[in-house]
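If it is no trouble, can you show me the amino acids of a protein and the C-alpha cells describing how it folds?
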Amino acid sequence: MGQFQEKFQKIIKNILNKSGKDKILIVILTGVLLLIVTIPTKKSADIKSDTVTTEHTSTNYEEYIEDKLENILSKVDGVGKVKVVVTLKDTGEKIIAQDENNSSEDVSEIDSAGGTRTSKKNSTETTNIYYGGTSGDEPYVKNENMPEVEGVMIVAQGGGDGVIAANITSAVESLLGVPVHKIKVLKMS
C-alpha cells in the first residue's frame, strides 16, 4: 500500500505542474480510472440468480465516493477546500447464486380407438447456494451491484468562480455518470 500512495503522490505532483487544459484532462482521466477500479465486474455464469438488497453497503459506498471526490477535487487548482454530499437512488443489491435443476418427461398414450397422444411435462426447481459462515449458513453472493448515484452537491472555496464550478461539474459528471442537472456546486463561506 505504501508504494501505491507514493505513486499516487507523484501523479498528483505531475498534475499540479501541468497547464490548465492538461490538468483538467488528467483529473478527469484519473477520476474515470478510480471509478473503473471501484466498480465490480460482472462475471457470466450458468447459475441462475436471485437478488437481495443490502442496506449497509450503500452507506459505506456513499462515504467512499464522498471521500474520493473530496480528495481529488481539493487537489485541483482554484478549488480549495471541498465538502461533498452524495445521495443514492437505491441501496444496491447482492445477487445470490442458485442451483437450477430441470427435468422433462414425454408421455405417449394410445386410446381405445387406436389414436396416439403425446404430452410433455417440464419442471424446474431452483435452490439458493449456501456456504458455512461465522453465523451459520450464508448465501453465496455471485455478484454485487453497487448503488446508483442520484445527485451530488459540492461546496468548495472556489465554487463561486464560474469556470471552476463548470470544471467541477464536468469532472463529477464524467466520474459518476450523473446528469449535470443533478450536480450542484456552491461556494464555501
Notes: Residues 152 and 183 are 5 Å apart (CA to CA). The longest strand covers residues 93-110.
